[in-house]
Amino acid sequence: MSVLLFRQPLPNVTRPQMEADVVIVGGGPAGMACALRLSQLIDNHNGKNPDSPLSKENIYVLEKAREIGQHCLSGALLDPRSMRELLPGFEKEAPLDAEVSQEAVYFLSRHSKFKFPVTPPPLRDHGNYVISLNRFVKWLGGKVEEAGITIFTGFAGSELLVEGDRVLGVRTDDKGVDKDNQPKGNFEPGYDLRAKVVILAEGSRGSLTKQLIGRFQLDRDRNPQTYGQGIKELWEIPAGRVAPGQVIYTMGWPLTSKEYGGAWIYGGKDNIVSLGFVTGLDYPDPRLDPQRVLQEFKRHPFVKGLLEGGKMVRYGAKSLPYGGWWSVPPVSGNGWMILGDSAGFLNSQRLKGIHLAIKSGMLAAETAFAGMLKNDFSATTLAGYGRAVDSSWIKDELWKVRNFHQGFEHGFWHGMFHAALQQVTGGRGLHARYAAHAGHRRLKKLSELPPDGGGEAHLLGNAKGDGKLTFDKLTDLYHSGTKHEEDQPAHLVIHDTDICNARCVQEYGNPCQHFCPANVYEMVEDPAVSCGKRISLNPSNCVHCKTCDIMDPYEIITWVPPEGGGGPNYDGM
Amino acid sequence: MADTILVVVEQREGKLNRVSWETLTAGQGIAADMGWTLEAAVLGKGASGLASEIAAKQLAKVYAIESPALEPYTPDAYVFALKQFLASHQPRLVLMPHTYQVRDFAPQLAAALKRALISDCIGYKHEGGKLLFTRQMFQGKFAADVSFSGEPPWFATFQNGAFRGDQVKAGSAAAPIETVTIQIPEGTVRNRPHEVFKEAKQAVDLTQAEIIVAVGRGIKEQKNIELAKQLAEALGGEIAASRPICDAGWLPMDRQIGSSGQTVAPKLYLALGISGAIQHIVGMKGSRTIVAINKDSEAPIFEVADLAAVGNLFDIVPPLIEAIKKAKAGA
Amino acid sequence: MKQVPQKDAPLKLNESGAWIREDVSYEVNEPDAYALEEALRQKEKHSGEVVVITAGPARAQQVLRGALAKGADRAIHLEDAGFVGLDAFNTSRAIAAAIREEKFDLIFTGLQSDDYGYAQTGVILAELLGWPHATIIMQIEKSDSGIRVKRELEAGFFQFVDMPLPAVLTIQSGINKLRYATLIGIKQAKNKPLRKVSMGEVQSALGPNGLKIEKLYVPEKTKNTEMLEGSPAEIAKKLVEKLRNQVRVL
């Protein structure tokens, strides 16, 4: 087995065609909010215009997971602002774990901690709710279905159908293709969903969004998007340690001043605690392993004290867009709109994006509705969405933190200095617009780094784990419930494996082995290869976090959706 | 009349299915625990001949139920014959081995009598005055103790390997044998079976294998799998593997054991060079006996193994194959 | 078809210890998916109607919707949380009562369920309906007198059996590749007839359960790992002894 074959749409296949008015790719908070708002607008319209009703029959949500919410992962803290607009009184029926009761921010050193006497304003969470995003989206999805909008679960948007400057629709994944890209007995070709408007709500580093940005060069004149990787474990701990609604943020240990990131610990109900670490994907040492970082974090006496005697019940990881306002691409065009994390609507200072995703979904729905009324989804009509975002509180909120993450490009202390400055200048800081550099460009070559890792040694390489408090990656991975149809082509498309086997192995030491939280990438011994090792993939381990697509130093990995229905199972996350 | 346990043994073409001894062992155990009488029945052509084999064991009586319509096996004929037999001999408990054949007719028999059947049990308990039957649920994740809440006769079937066939006690004297002839009316049997035949197996269903020899990365190279296959053959078992082996294409996907492959609970699971990552363990931890051979004394597989050898599998397996062959020949 | 907890879902016992907590994800019982696939193939070969039935709470409807999306024509939902606690005999009685007015030619069930694993419902149903049955079926062909089925036996043996119709068959897993539901199929499923049957409608056919789960527990595997030591030859010898006397496979 020497040649790695990758997933690509099968050529010479007749694809079933299906017409649609609106196709929303992605059933997360943004996509669901969009669908629900659109349904509300249509119901309202139909109530007033019974003779010329609009139909919901041809509005679809494509969700690649087998079940709604299965791929949704976040801390999470929900700022209820947009939900209150979407569904006033939602608190009465939504699955909310707890209202935030107390917050504390700590700076950790190796053995001790320093508590911020005053919680920095951006991290004040009173009025917010601790939720499980998975459960929340399940509930929200239930409402979308009740409203009569079809959610196709187990179907991924694998390609955009484009003609000239127009997006014509979405092609769904081919099902029943074997490892050698041959159709199996139960082969079903992907559908060509010809839609009047395609709304991309794929979450962070969406694959269709990436295609769109590349195709139309939507990133020119913008800061490159930068990312973080959030790794989360859900724990069941002895009662009384962390109260429901208790929020803890930490900075510092185990990261050094060279890395960006921090941790969260949120108290849920039933003695369940959500804890995780976000590592900025712009660290210098390619041997850094974010899963290891999380394990080191847990070994800190403060954290250990909270978790001791408890049981880890679930694991997962996802990337988050940190770039802020200057990285947001144009959000609409001829037949398309982009929502939520796919657009980069995340407040990296507050570490919150769900409320922004929901609001963007609502605004896009309003524009889509306007389009449905006129039956016109041209760039001119859809530009209404961008304008709406510009004059909404999405802009207000993101404008204030527009230079936040960039300030950290020269390390933690610089970042804090700039952040303080930005606080008093309405977000401006030293420059109107701080530049940003794509995170993967900041990886240093092994030759430029101390062989043993120096001050970062404790962050590098795979975690061993003690099996009780800390875990090796495979054990953690098992708790993500990730499952895929085994006999299918690899969906991590590596455009030139020679680079992996000959160049990367020397220059960066194949960081994919470390930054992937799911052990998808492995270098296995192969005497036939000049460097003695070659890249091997375990694609069915993938948790769909997109880190590889973001962080590989040569930009040769493209993540495409595997066969729909596969992926992690973030029950309760 | 004392409470009786009736064990219905299974025969195939004039030979007793060995698993019936296990059911007899169970029957003897329950009879002793409850103070009940144990009897056995065998059906079909040549039943009388087989009856004497059974009668040599410790039990009160053996019935040879005969009827030309019982050959070949059909569920209708078996159910009719047993229903009639049970009407006149009223055992409290009817035990059978959980074989494919029993699965085919036992539910029909129980339903015809409007009685309950607890199938695929792995043991029994006498607790709190009740007779409880233990069975696996949710693919081995849980065990359940189940009791009968209806009227006797009660029906239960035991899983292969739940009891030791070689532990069945011999009787001090041969038990009496009674031949029962049943007239099965024309038209009772609705199925017409043809000759049984063997076929090269297509997809393998590892969940039905009693013995599995599984290989992991410790096997090092594809050509070494041959050694493991020889061991499997010597034991009369199936070859299986952990995920990396199947991913590499060294064994087909349907041989994979683990969270992304099959979940098995055979009588014997031999893990060669398998480290015991949790993804694999969940697929086999329900096995009755786990034997692990691995070079690494810290391998997690040793935490679930019943029998363990820390060593080089390439040194241990060849003499193991020889010793097994010798033991089988000698026995 | 039955809805069962997802295969790798972490299951927990409820307070009474007699059942599991129901707040888990569910899926179609895998053997039933093969039964459905076989039914759909038969329909493709000989035309006809495929009807799917399930007994369970509201959440079980998912199983029916999925089947309709794959090509089944009609669905019957015996909807009540109470159906979960019925034993195989009662479940079969409920199903038989619900399909009283129907005129089916063939009834397929999966081999057994992934949660209980009793492997009885199909056979009991046949008895209640007064129909012939066959189990662990690999293949079905139409014949002049009805059907000819291929039964799987132990140890690699098979057997053909001629049967009249109507009949009940329990289908072996893995005999076919399961088809995927298509977008059109999912859309069309919404408009296919789904008849709900309440517990009240079939209550009279049921009786008290014939068996009772007294306790559900995690099997204690007292792991006393016995280490075998010595030279490879010695280890081999000791192991064979164990295999013979303790494990009894030799």
Structure, briefly:
The complex is a heterotrimer of chains A (573), B (331) and C (250). With 573 residues, chain A is an alpha+beta fold. Chain A has 15 helices and 24 strands.
N-to-C CA distance of chain C: 40 Å
Helix-strand pattern of chain B: EEEHEHEHEHEEEEEEEHEHEHEEH
Count of alpha/pi helices of chain B: 8
CATH superfamily of the largest domain in chain B: HUPs
What oligomeric state do these chains adopt? Answer: heterotrimer
Average pLDDT metric of chain B: 90
Structural topology:
The complex is a heterotrimer of chains A (573), B (331) and C (250).
Chain A: E1 17-25, H1 29-48, E2 59-63, E3 77-78, H2 81-86, E4 98-99, E5 102-108, E6 113-115, E7 129-130, H3 133-146, E8 150-153, E9 157-163, E10 166-172, E11 175-177, E12 183-188, E13 192-200, H4 207-216, E14 227-236, E15 246-252, E16 261-267, E17 272-280, H5 290-299, H6 301-307, E18 311-321, E19 332-333, E20 336-338, H7 340-343, H8 354-374, H9 379-390, H10 393-400, H11 412-424, H12 473-478, E21 492-494, H13 497-507, H14 512-515, E22 521-525, E23 533-537, H15 547-551, E24 557-559
Parallel strand pairs in A: 1-2, 1-13, 2-8, 5-15, 13-20
Antiparallel strand pairs in A: 3-7, 4-7, 5-6, 9-10, 10-13, 11-12, 14-17, 14-18, 15-16, 16-17, 19-20, 21-24, 22-23
Helix pairs in contact in A: 1-3, 1-8, 8-9
Chain B: E1 4-9, E2 11-12, E3 15-16, H1 19-34, E4 37-43, H2 47-55, E5 61-66, H3 75-88, E6 93-97, H4 100-112, E7 117-127, E8 130-137, E9 142-148, E10 154-158, E11 177-181, E12 192-198, E13 211-215, H5 225-235, E14 238-241, H6 243-247, E15 268-272, H7 278-281, E16 289-294, E17 307-310, H8 313-330
Parallel strand pairs in B: 1-4, 1-6, 4-5, 5-11, 6-10, 7-10, 13-14, 13-15, 15-16, 16-17
Antiparallel strand pairs in B: 2-3, 7-8, 8-9
Helix pairs in contact in B: 3-4, 5-8
Chain C: E1 3-5, E2 26-28, H1 30-46, E3 51-56, H2 61-70, E4 74-79, H3 88-98, E5 106-110, H4 121-129, E6 133-143, E7 146-152, E8 157-163, E9 167-171, H5 183-189, E10 194-197, H6 199-202, E11 211-217, E12 226-227, H7 232-245
Parallel strand pairs in C: 3-4, 4-10, 5-9, 6-9
Antiparallel strand pairs in C: 1-2, 6-7, 7-8
Helix pairs in contact in C: 2-5, 3-4
